Amino acid sequence: MFIHSAQLIALLTTALQAWFTLPMSTGGLTLLLSPEMQPHTFRGLQTIGKVVYIIDLVIFTSLVAAISYRFIRWPKTLPRSLSQPRESMFVCTMFLSLASIIAAIARYGIPSCGPWLVVTYRVLFWIYFAVTFCVAVVFYLWLFISAELQVENMTPAWDLPIFPFMLSGTIAATGASLQPRAHAIAMIVGGTTAQGLGFFISILMFAMYMRRMIEYGLPSTSSRPAMFIAVGPPAFTSLAIIGMANAYPTAYEYFGPGQTTLQVVKVIATVTSIFMWSLSFWFFCIAALTCLLAAREMRFSLNWWAFVFPNVGFTIATITIGRELQSQGILWVGSIATILMVILYLFIAVMHIRAVLTRQILFKGQDEDVPEEEARPKKTEKVKIDAEDQC
Q1: Which site from 26, 106, 297, 359 is most exposed, i.e. has the minimal number of CB atoms within 10 Å?
Q2: Which cell locations does it reside in (predicted)?
Q3: Taking the CB of residue 311, how many other CB atoms lie within 10 A of it?
C-alpha cells in the first residue's frame, strides 16, 4: 500500500510531541556509549558514539522541522495540542532530548574543539536551566487548574514537566569539570539546585501515583511501559550527585583545603547515590514485573521508549557507583546492562518502524492526541452489616 505525498505530510504532522521520545532515548544511549563512561571499552567505541550522536541530531532536527511545519500550517493545532492532557505531557520530551544533546557536547564535542565550545556549553546550560524551570512552573500550574486531569487517571508521565529541569544536574555533572573554577562552582550549585527540586517533586508525584495504583489498580496495558519513568529521577540524581562531586574544583577553598573538601564531598555523594540507586532499582523491579504480566496484550506505542531512557540513567548510575567503589563486579553488571540496552534500543526501533508501516501509530485515532481512560477501580465485595453490628 502506497501513501500519497499529501497524505504522508498530513500523517507526519500529527501528534509529534510524543515522537521526541525517540531522540530522547537516542541521546541517552549516546551518553551511555561514551568511552569515558564505559568501564570496559574497545577501539572504535568513540566513533560509534559519535555516529549515534549525529543520528540523534538528525532525528531531533527533523522532528523540530516537522512539528514547526504542523503549527505554522495549521495554527489551531498548537493550542489544541497544549490543552490535550495526554499529548501535552509529551511536550517536555523535547527538552529531555535537548538535555542529552547538550550533555553529549562534553563527551564528543569539547575534546575535539577549541575553548569556544566550553563557553558555549556554559551558556547553553544556563539557558536550559532558566527555560526548563519556567516550563516546570507553567505546566504544573496548568495541571493543578485543569479540570480534565483527575488523580484516578494519573500516569508517571505527570512527572515529565519537572524532568527536564532536573536533568540540568546531569548537564552540570557532565561538563562542570571542563569549566574554569568560578564557572564550575556556579554550574555545580545550579545543577544541585535543579537536581534537588526535580527529585523531590518526583517523589511527591510518585507517592500520589502509588496511591492511585493502590486504589484503582495497575495502569492500562498501553501505559505500563511509562512506569519505567519512575526509575529515572533517583537514577539520574544518583549519577548527577557523584558527577558533580567529582567535578568539584580543588582550587576552591571556601570550605577548607580543596583536597580534603573533595574527599568529604565524594564520600557523601557516593553514600547518597547508593541510597538513591536502591529506590531506582525497586521502581525498576515493579515496572518490569508489571509489564511482564501484560506482555502478551501489549501493542506498540511511543511510550515504549520509556523502556530505554530511564534505564539508561539507571545503567549509568550503576557504572558510576561501581567506579567509585572500585568494584569489578558492579562494573561488569554495568557493561552487561549496556549491551542489553543497545539490544533493547534496536528492538524498539524495529517495532517503531513496523508500527508506522502497519498504521499502529501516525494514523487517525492511534496517537497520543486521543484521550484514554486509565482508571480501573478495584473490584470489591459489599458486605451487608446488620444494624446491631453497627451499634
Answers
A1: 297
A2: Membrane
A3: 26
* Closest-CA residue to 366 (of 154, 153, 222, 221): 222
- Residue 325 is placed in which grid cell? 567503589
| CA-based max dimension of the chain | 84
Q: Please indicate whether residue 347 or residue 5 has the higher confidence score (pLDDT).
A: 347
Q: By 3-state DSSP, what share of the chain in percent is helix, strand and coil, each rounded to 5?
A: 75, 0, 25
| CA–CA dist 309, 200 (Å, integer) | 20
Assign 3-class secondary structure to 244-278. Answer: HHHCCCCCCCCCCCHHHHHHHHHHHHHHHHHHHHH
Residue whose grid cell is 526501533? 349
Question: pLDDT exceeding 70 applies to what percent of the chain?
Answer: 83
Q: What is the share, in percent, of the chain residues with pLDDT greater than 90?
A: 50
User: 12-16, 253-257, 343-347: which range is least confident on average?
Assistant: 12-16
Domains, the chain:
5-368 (1.50.10.150)
Determine contact, residues 317/284, Cβ cutoff 8 Å.
no
Residue 383: its pLDDT value, please? 40
Question: Which one-letter DSSP state was computed for residue 365?
Answer: T
pLDDT tens digits for range 169-224? 999 999 999 999 889 999 999 999 999 999 999 998 888 888 888 888 888 787 78
3-class state of residue 381 by DSSP: coil
Task: Identify the residue whose cell numbers are 497524505.
Answer: 7
